[in-house]
Amino acid sequence: MSKQYETVIGLEVHVELATKTKIFCGCSTEFGGAPNTHTCPVCTGMPGSLPVLNKQVVEYAVAVGLATNCSITQNCKFDRKNYFYPDNPQNYQISQLYLPICRDGHVEIETDGGTKSVGIHEIHMEEDAGKLIHDEWEDCSLVDYNRSGVPLIEIVSEPDMRSADEVVAYLEKLRLIIQYLGASDCKLQEGSMRADVNLSIREAGAEEFGTRTEMKNLNSFKAIRRAIEGETDRQISLLEEGKEVTQETRRWDDTKEKSYQMRSKEDAQDYRYFPDPDLVPVIISDEWISQIKEAQPELRDEKRNRYKEEYGLPDYDIDIITGSKHLADIFEATITHGAEAKEVSNWLMGETMRLVNDSEMDLTDLSFSPEHLAALISMVKENEINRKVAKEVFEKIFKEDVDPKAYVEEHGLKSMNDEGALKETIGQIVKDNPKSVEDYKAGKKKAMGFLVGQTMKATQGKADPGVVNKILKEILESL
């Protein structure tokens, strides 16, 4: 009988914070600038330059700590982590080892077996390194220090996860908490959220952990899932062959769906940590924690409960809308402009999501104004335009944020609500299509659809289909 194995997983999640400037200098943190343009003597590690802590970094770290049920270290400090690498200009990284800012937290995740608590060992503040760009044409590596000194928090979980599904659920929960707080956009594709996966295998029922490996800098849920499954299979194969798993850092190649050894795993002592002599301890008062707590926005779980109670929306709608802080903001703002909650939900769940998927864009990039969506919903409600026209207008709102009232006026898209004119048009269509009238009288209901279609064509889609059906029935029944 073959052995049963259990996977044990812990994560180190790096999140770039949404400050306008870096952690220890005034350089911009904006993504995508020309190489080495967001730099100064501090973030390029020039001798004699001194770091000054960005207060907003501490506030974001505390906010995330409070939202993940951590205790806050009210007297914390920074340490130097020494290592030599081309993208690390000082040859050390300013981080926190001995007194991290947040400790002993947890978040609840939903799994197939119900709700599960995943422990958070600590959250610490640190600076990001630069970025190496490998130029295969020139066969060399170039360094861009724009990212050097961008503020990070590292969220270190306990080894509480047992599958790729649990890992993805945990990451999604963390991402939403952080996005709702406004502490980071958590765009995995831009590297503002990335995860290192620590994974080991043990026989089912065993209490001791196996030897773990670490896979670094995974920045998509798909890659994380495949890396976990691939590394699990690799470690089980080694154990089945009677070989030992080596503690090491590995790189996951998502294209080849294989991991490769990068280096043997270091311990904390290999980094020669010591307190940073250029930075004073950070004292976080009770009053400061209270201020941060009071400024906390409504998080997703609270929002879901409120939407259910206040708007009576189905769970499916609520999950989709609250699954993006930006989408939830648009939803609420559209309601404040007078639109009904279910109508707003229908437009966001239907046309908005369709266009987002067609454009392959991120929900955080939605830029149309809630006021324009509310105006469009009102125009449909007042029968100024029909739903077919509304969908066409919404596409323009989605792409260019046009004012729907002005756009409809300018392009002559208003509904034909003059029943007298409609009766005349429909009467002529009935007269021109005697075969369809005959078919309708013979019980062929498709004939009605054809006549409605001809009317919509004749009115360039501006007629209200409900009114057309009513008048058409009256005319046909009178024949």
Automatic annotation (TrEMBL):
Entry's transmembrane regions: none
Catalytic activity: L-aspartyl-tRNA(Asn) + L-glutamine + ATP + H2O = L-asparaginyl-tRNA(Asn) + L-glutamate + ADP + phosphate + 2 H(+); L-glutamyl-tRNA(Gln) + L-glutamine + ATP + H2O = L-glutaminyl-tRNA(Gln) + L-glutamate + ADP + phosphate + H(+)
Subunit annotation: Heterotrimer of A, B and C subunits.
GO terms, molecular function: asparaginyl-tRNA synthase (glutamine-hydrolyzing) activity; ATP binding; glutaminyl-tRNA synthase (glutamine-hydrolyzing) activity; transferase activity
SUPFAM superfamilies in the cross-refs: GatB/YqeY motif, Glutamine synthetase/guanido kinase
EC number: 6.3.5.-
Organism: Anaerostipes caccae (strain DSM 14662 / CCUG 47493 / JCM 13470 / NCIMB 13811 / L1-92)
Record's function text: Allows the formation of correctly charged Asn-tRNA(Asn) or Gln-tRNA(Gln) through the transamidation of misacylated Asp-tRNA(Asn) or Glu-tRNA(Gln) in organisms which lack either or both of asparaginyl-tRNA or glutaminyl-tRNA synthetases. The reaction takes place in the presence of glutamine and ATP through an activated phospho-Asp-tRNA(Asn) or phospho-Glu-tRNA(Gln).
Family annotation (Pfam families): GatB_N, GatB_Yqey
Domain Asn/Gln amidotransferase: 329-476
Coiled coil: none
An example Gene Ontology biological process: glutaminyl-tRNAGln biosynthesis via transamidation
Annotated protein name in UniProt: Aspartyl/glutamyl-tRNA(Asn/Gln) amidotransferase subunit B
